[in-house]
Amino acid sequence: MREVEVQAVQLDRLAAILPQGRADLLKGNAERARDAFGDRVIWHVNATARGGGVAEMLQTLLAYGKGAGIANRWLVLDADPDFFRITKRIHNLLHGEPGDGGQLGENEHAHYRDVLAANLDAMLGLIDPGDIVLVHDPQPAGLTAGLRATGARVVWRCHIGRDEPNALTDLGWGFLREYVEGADAFVFSRRVYAPEWAHGPRLVVIPPSIDPFSLKNTDLAPVAVEAVLARAGLVAGGDPDGPVRFDRRDGTSSEVRSHVDNGGLVLDGPPPPVDARLVVQVSRWDLLKDMSGVMAGFARSAVVAGRDDCHLMLVGPAVTGVADDPEGADVLARCREDWARLPEGVRERVHLASIPMDDGDENAVIVNAVQRHAYTVVQKSLVEGFGLTVTEAMWKARPVIASRVGGIQDQVVSDRDGLLVDDPSDLDGFAIALGRLLDDGDLAGRLGVAGRERARDQFIGDRHLAQYVDLFAGLLEG
């Protein structure tokens, strides 16, 4: 187990973009938290420090929490590949999908318990009675009982789920129930994700949020966007004028590396022209994100014909950089095979990009530039707990096309601040929605502007922080 260091960010920065009433409420909640928590520590425990939405949200929560004068610390599990294969299996089942079809029997329970017992031993000297521990998702769920035995309050935070349970979700909850049922509270992104036994006064619904000032979301001028993408080898025809610099989270300055020297970040073919209208999906290489379905939908003649300036880019992390997702390499390999089978005229307009994870700040800057360069951002997930990439695109005023599944339904009002496809497996429906945006620039512009306003109103950190203050204060009051 290791600790992740996060720099404090002052709340004044977030307050500056809020209406006065919300800014005052943010400062009031910070004062309330300091009074309620005293010298207690708020601990977060999850599976990885980089790659995926949970790690990104924790960066934001801890940074603003520290800026508010609250003691926040973040621990990451030490686990082996077999452990992560088991927890990825649970992850898929909670989404109602079979995943690798492997077992969740006594051998899997034993290995899960053994790995978490070793991690618990490493935590026992750190956690004090009265502290609050947020245990995130299935990977560290088995720590709950041991942490409660220290006298800490323990909250299990589940970021995933399925709107309509099925036999597979029952299997996933059947594995987890014994480990988390004794938690002091349960937090879900949507109420319908919680199993029956988690309903009641301990259930709290807190949708995620984004940080407008993170490296992934901070404003970038168009010239900087083009320079970052050209330097990274993600577009052809751009010409950065010298080094492309950015400010890291710790305040130091750095350069985007010249990935062009290593062939660029686009796999199996040249990058798109810098002036192409780019359709983008950013996500993990995960079957539930349906990258292959995005390619197939884009390839439908109703979308491609007559729109020769339109290209598709699927953007995911370098698969060696996401320790808790053992399926990533296989999914990427499958996507590359599907790409190779596309008709030549379509294949040259579809691009798979793998973004390095060895430098989290650089990764965030590159993804920011890709999303800002996009004509439209899509998220054609088959299931989705909550689509952070959807909110990121909305904040950047990019029109969004997404599946009407999971938390995405709470983020986008279709035809007002984005377009939703009712059936995520409906390739024709996806193609028609994409065609609407490509053929109607005014519609794309209106949806983008409305999406930014909705992101500002509903999905930035002041609301998220206030809900956690309410939860923690209630726990401490008994």
Structure description:
With 478 residues, the chain is of the alpha/beta class. It folds into two domains: 2-209 and 460-476, 3-Layer(aba) Sandwich (Rossmann fold), CATH 3.40.50.2000; 222-458, Rossmann fold. The chain is 42% helix and 15% strand. The protein has 18 helices and 16 strands. Strands 1-3-2-4-5-6-7 form a seven-stranded mixed beta sheet. The protein has a seven-stranded mixed beta sheet with strand order 10-13-12-11-14-15-16, with helices on both faces.
Can I get a quick summary?
42% of the residues lie in helices and 15% in strands. With 478 residues, it is an alpha/beta fold.
Q: How would you classify the quaternary structure?
A: single chain
Global morphology: globular
- CATH level-3 fold name of the largest domain: Rossmann fold
What's the main sheet like? Answer: 7 strands, mixed
Query: How many discrete domains?
Result: 2
Set down the secondary structure blueprint.
Blueprint: E1 2-4, H1 11-15, H2 20-37, E2 41-46, H3 53-67, E3 71-76, H4 81-94, H5 106-123, E4 132-136, H6 144-148, E5 153-158, H7 167-180, E6 185-188, E7 203-205, H8 222-232, E8 245-247, E9 253-255, E10 266-267, E11 277-282, H9 291-299, H10 301-304, E12 310-317, H11 328-340, H12 344-347, E13 350-355, H13 360-373, E14 376-379, H14 388-395, E15 400-403, H15 408-411, E16 419-421, H16 427-439, H17 441-458, H18 461-476
Parallel strand pairs: 2-3, 2-4, 4-5, 5-6, 6-7, 11-12, 11-14, 12-13, 14-15, 15-16
Antiparallel strand pairs: 1-3, 8-9, 10-13
Helix pairs in contact: 2-18, 4-5, 4-7, 8-13, 9-16, 14-17
